[in-house]
Amino acid sequence: MFYREAGDFKTSYPEDGQTFPIKLDRFGFFAVLFIGFAVIPFVINDYWVNSVFLPFLIYAIAAIGLNILVGYCGQVSLGTGGFMAVGAYACYKFMTGLDIWIGGVQYALPPINIFLSVILAGLVTAFVGVLFGLPSLRIKGFYLAVATLAAQFFLVWLFNKWAWAYNYSASGQISAPERSIFGMNVTGANADPWVAYLFCLVFLAGLAFMARNLTRGSMGRKWMAIRDMDIAAEIIGVDPLKAKLSAFAVSSFFIGISGALFFSVYLGAVEVGEVFGINKSFLVLFMVIIGGLGSIFGAFAGAAFLVLLPVFLKNTLVGGLGWPTDLAAHLEFMIVGGLIITFLVLEPHGLAQLWRIIKEKLRLWPFPH
Amino acid sequence: MKMKLATLALGAALAAGPALAELTFPSLSYRTGPYAANGIPFADGYADYFTLLNERDGGIGGEKINLIECETGYNTEKGVECYEATKGSGALLYQPLSTGITYQLIPKATADGIPVHSMGYGRTSAKNGKVFSHIFNYPVNYWDGASVGIKHLLDLNDGDLSGKKVALVYHNSAYGKEPIRTLEELAKKHGYELTLLAVDHPGQEQKSQWLQIRRERPDYVLMWGWGVMNQVAIQEAVNIRFPMENFIGIWWSGSENDVKPAGAGADGYKALAFHNVGSDFPIFDDLKTHVVDKGLAAGAGDQLGTVLYNRGLYAAMLAAEAAKTAQEIHDTSNITAAMMRDGMESLEITEEKMATLGMPNFGPEFTVTCENHGGDGLGAVTQWDANAEKWTLITDFVQSDQDVLQPLIEEDSAAYAAENDIEERCN
């Protein structure tokens, strides 16, 4: 009833192999894109952007990035917070003008456009990610998780210690100065909410498109071969070095961009230990696991679940029911934790799998076999 | 996607803000998380003072006060959410009680025209009102604290610290790093040797730092700690038998919560303060009659008279006085955030004022001006008596070394102004 597939015939391979082969899904996707780009910017205010949409969009980018590494390539990483920090600090250096000292002489680049700064920050993070991905060639599973955990602690320590990274500010904080695109402020306090929202949405849409197509192509199939059985993959001609390192690079690129946006557009001022600590690594990993490993939709669902649910609960319990804030905060932990366990017990493959099952049912409804 | 939209729609229905009241004061509190032990008494004191004004005087200038509490958990992301959620409700003033959140709010609140009062924390150079139009940090800041601490050490050593070793144990964050510049400048001036020991959030593991202190034997240890870090540091100091009277914490490291776990060993530990301690003030009788006995006390109601409760009380008192000043200046009882800012900028705290409020000699006298948003930098030293289980003020309020601090403040605020294209005001 919901899906009317009668008459929806495919006459060519590209048609059959497209991302949304079912017509209704395709329309749904374009409708969501339309709402995201052309409706939401006109109706949102500061609160919705800063408390709901920006964190959701940015965490979704990070979750897609981590999903490529963990979900598609099977390399467990706990270094997400550290890599986000690389993105944030790289973006800060690029947007304030990168300075390098060689032999006592300072060479400084002029401040780079914010859009390019974010992309460059992603590239720098990709490079750092490859470096920390090197151990994956020898170790896997829990051992690799520990190695990436070391990256997490090392990077946070580095950005706390290395005064150059925060332009020698007294407090060690980095704050994003005002930067604009087409004359409209994207960062800083005077940025219009819809501009910040669209800026992040463009990145998310672009990166999600890229991720989806990478994972469908030969590169994604190599990653999945490595994930499913690395020895077998090597025998059929997949180079583990290239596959693993490319997964680390692409994943870190995404995570670096999310870190850059997290700092420049969302928070505006960042302190590495507090914002990019180990908690962030776990949060993004939980998003990937709850959403569903190896699914782009899962990354969205996981990010939505972990970003929106606390805000929703807080508004319900404190704003709606008028409970004391501390009681609500404790309950929030319990409810979110309880729901995570419930969801994973009911469907170990995450929200994406849940959605897949529902969709199968809907396609047959009301006449199941 | 569809699930996401459904969630959003449900959220939209429930995200409507609280009802508008006449004078709205948001309280970004933290009653949960690793810093809750210190966040609770402050939030209680802050809330109780406003409850007292509502119950006893019918609000400020006849306008009832609406206190909106929002839980931040000392987390900057939640702090931003709280700010965005409450700013639309006519919020007059933000006191985030977190240096990290203050840094977030400096540009945001300035753009929105809402004043921020970071009392004894936040960005020190916000003292320069010429650059920071909406940020206030009276009566003291961290650099004053560092200087007052060193002055106390000078007093103990007949004015000569040369050759002495001073160690700083600090929370490895924006907050803990604040005093380093000042202590380095003061080290140049007074000739002591400074050792820096960073402790990472949340500070439960400090064995290596205290091992180093045991090895290097500094003459004095200063501490910039918060939350559980304080308790651990004091316990570690007791464990290595460091003489407690040579261990001085900043005002955020000097509450009952911090010293009690160490028991008798913490006796003699010192902490800086910018307001008086104890419950020996007439206002506490009023609080008992109008708030506690009516069952209106915030939280569990068991924090009255503790150091951080008094600080919350003091913060609320300064906010209420600024609101009164604003009402006088603009000749209206229903003030806006912009008027509140004007009130804060012409705030004058005198001994008579504090005495009429039932808080005689509670804090230093100071005047806020357009140029100076930070007061005169008066601080005192308190000491813990483990047997009597109470803090006592052991020095008068002394002024920090303005010769050293003023240039630093000028320099840091000028850098901020240049970074953000801010033109100096007050000319």
Automatic annotation (TrEMBL), chain A:
Predominant localisation class: membrane
Entry membrane topology: Multi-pass membrane protein
InterPro entries: ABC_transp_permease, LivM-like
Organism domain of life: Bacteria
One Gene Ontology term of the molecular function aspect: branched-chain amino acid transmembrane transporter activity
Subcellular locations according to the entry: Cell membrane
Keyword Cell membrane: yes
Cellular component terms (Gene Ontology): plasma membrane
Residue ranges crossing the lipid bilayer per the database entry: 27-44, 56-74, 86-108, 114-134, 141-159, 194-211, 247-270, 282-307, 327-346
Alphabetical UniProt keywords: Cell membrane, Membrane, Transmembrane, Transmembrane helix
Name of the molecule in the record: Branched-chain amino acid ABC transporter permease
UniProtKB/TrEMBL annotation, chain B:
Leucine-binding protein domain location: 25-386
Top-level taxonomy: Bacteria, Pseudomonadati, Pseudomonadota, Alphaproteobacteria, Rhodobacterales
Name the record gives this protein: ABC transporter substrate-binding protein
Alphabetized UniProt keyword annotations: Signal
Signal peptide (residue range): 1-21
UniProt xrefs under Pfam families: Peripla_BP_6 (PF13458)
Keyword Ribosomal protein annotated: no
Organism, scientific name: Aquicoccus porphyridii
Domain of life per record: Bacteria
InterPro entries xrefs: Leu-bd, Peripla_BP_I
Family in the record: Belongs to the leucine-binding protein family.
Keyword Signal: yes
Xref: Gene3D superfamilies: 3.40.50.2300
